[in-house]
Amino acid sequence: MKYPIKMNQDDFILKIIKDIHYEDKENKSIRNYKDVRLAVFECPECNKYFKLNIKAKATKTTKQCPSCNTLEIQNTIKSHNKKTSLENLQTIFRGMKERCYLKTSRAYKNYGGRGITVCDGWLDDKNNFINWSLLNGYSDLLSIDRINNDKGYSPKNCRYVNRNIQARNTRKIMSTNTSGYRGVSKKGNKWSSSIRIKYILYTLGNWNTPLEAAKAYDYFILKNNLEHTINNVLKKNEPIDIASKLRIKNRLFTSIFTL
Predict the structure, then answer these.
(1) Distance CA 259, CA 103 (A)
(2) Given this model, what pLDDT does residue 31 score?
(3) What are the domain boundaries of the chain?
(4) Mean pLDDT of the chain, nearest integer
(5) What are the helix and strand counts (H, E) for the chain?
(6) Fewer CB within 10 Å, N or C, the chain?
(7) Are 181 and 214 in contact (CB under 8 A)?
(8) What does the alpha-carbon distance between residue 221 and residue 142 come to, in Å, rounded to a whole number?
(9) How far apart are CA 257 and CA 10, in angstroms?
(10) Torsion-angle region of residue 204: left (phi > 0), alpha (psi -120 to 50) or beta?
(11) pLDDT one-digit tens code per residue, 207-254
(12) Which of 96, 102, 100 is nearest to 114 (CA)?
C-alpha cells in the first residue's frame, strides 16, 4: 500500500501529534477522498488534542483549536466595541459566499459570474475572516470593500470603509455617461474631465477626446492617492505629458492638489 508524503512540522504552527492519513471519525478508510487528509494537533492554549484536515490551506496558519479560537473571538468582540456583533460578521461572510458561489443570487452575475471568489483561508474557516475583520477596522457603521474590483475577497484586497468611499470605488458607470469613462462628460465640442471630492466638484479641464479626459482623471486620482476607482487607461510613459497639460489647464489647482 502506498502511503502519502510524510508531514513536515515546519509547515505548521501547531505541534503535530499524529498523522492519521485518511481516516474519518468512524475510523473507516476514505482514501478516495482526495481533498481530505487528517492529522492530530495539540492546542498551545488548552493543551487538548484535536483533528484538522491538513489539505485545507487554513490549517497551516491555524494557531489554536476551534474552541479556543471561538473564545478569543468572543473576548475580542466584548473589548472591541459595544456595537460589534458576531452575528453581523457572520451575515457579512454569508453574503460574500452567496454573491460569489450561489448562482441563483441576484448579485452573482457581478461577482461569481465575473470570477470573483473568497480566498481559501476565509472559505475554509469563517473564524479566520471574523478575526481578520476585528483586527482590521470592523465596525457596524462600515461595509466591507474590495480595493480592486476585479479581484476577490482576501486580506490583501479588502478593507472596511464608509458608504461614501464604497460608492466611489465601484466598477459601474452611470447610464447617462456617453463617454464610456468615469469622470468624463461631453461639453460642447470637447470632453470635460471632473471629479467630486467631499461633495465639491472639481474640473480637471476640457480635452479633445474622451480618452484624454479619462487619462487626466486617472492621473489625478493616482497622484493624490484618492479612493476613487480609475479607468485604467494610463500607460507607463504617459503620466508626465498628462501632468504638464493639467498644470496649464489648472493654474490655481496646485494650491490644493498635486498635479
Answers:
(1) 45
(2) 46
(3) 9-64, 68-168, 184-255
(4) 76
(5) 7, 8
(6) N
(7) yes
(8) 23
(9) 50
(10) alpha
(11) 889 888 888 888 888 888 877 777 888 776 665 566 666 655 554 454
(12) 100
